Amino acid sequence: MKFLFVKKRIGGDIWANSRLKAVSNMLSLKGKKVLDLGCGEGTYLGDYFNALGNNILYGDLDLELMEKMKAENKIVLDATNLPFADNAFDLIICADVLEHIKDDRTALLEIYRCVKPKGYALLMLPAHSFLYSKNQIKLGHWRRYDKNNKLLLFFKNTGFKIKKVRYSVWILFPLLYLIQKIGDETCLYGKRGKIYKNNRIEILLSPLLNFLCWLDSIIKMPFGLSLIYLLEKPNCYFRKNEKNA
Asked: Quick one: which H or E segment has residue 154?
């Protein structure tokens, strides 16, 4: 898998490629129905599964972001109230979405409802609550997640069982931690983070960057910027639609 220029900045592309390589080691589907939930303007995960021969639907709440996408099969939707029938998808990708939703449990219940029995939800969550700062509120984050019994119970109570789990992007973890201590980490994201007007530097460094991302994907460390969960819906489907259950 070649190094992809996704975010147009070195840190962002290391982040994207490390996670993509980790996902490619965790799951491979062909000929399935997939929803990329919260795709924004970046479709590298959906595009990966599309290239494998799956039927991809891209969805997000932000129409303006989706209008920047080249893909035609896209829909505006709310993650807490998905407009699909039960058991509609073989896989729902939910990358960097739940932390933006105050009621993340309702969103996960909707994902569970729309996944077929023996189907999967691929979640990517910002890791380590101690990295949550007031500056991340500017990014619309309600929380970061810890790999602990509380999160395990969260998944269990919605009906999912954990198939695979791992940290990702550990290679950038020291950088974010350091920037948090000396400044405002929101400079790494959004428009303020797009400091490279061309990717000439990345093109020159791409063999090294690709190696670092590969290293990040094959070596499992007990820390990282992202938590990746592959959740499976049991074959014996049961409803958990009660919000306060």
From this structure: helix 149-158
226-232: strand order across its sheet? 74-76, 55-60, 33-37, 89-95, 115-126, 226-232, 161-168
Intervals of the chain under pLDDT 50: 191-197, 241-245
Four-residue CA torsion sign, 193, 63, 115, 140: positive
Beta carbons within 10 angstroms of residue 141's beta carbon: 15
The whole-angstrom separation of Cα 203 and Cα 13 is 11
Distance from C-alpha of 30 to C-alpha of 54, rounded to nearest angstrom? 5
In the block, tokens 């950088």 appear at: 175
Q: What is the DSSP letter of 226?
A: E
pLDDT in tens, 228-238: 999 999 986 55
Kind plus residue range of the DSSP H or E element containing 119: strand 115-126
**59 neighbors 35 (Cβ within 8 angstroms):** yes
Place domain 25-173+220-232 in its CATH homologous superfamily.
Vaccinia Virus protein VP39 (3.40.50.150)
Amino acid (one-letter) located at 29: L
**What are 133's two structure tokens?**
């700062």
- Specify whether the CB–CB gap between 2 and 210 falls below 8 A: yes
Tell me the pLDDT tens digit for each residue of 138-155: 888 999 999 999 999 999
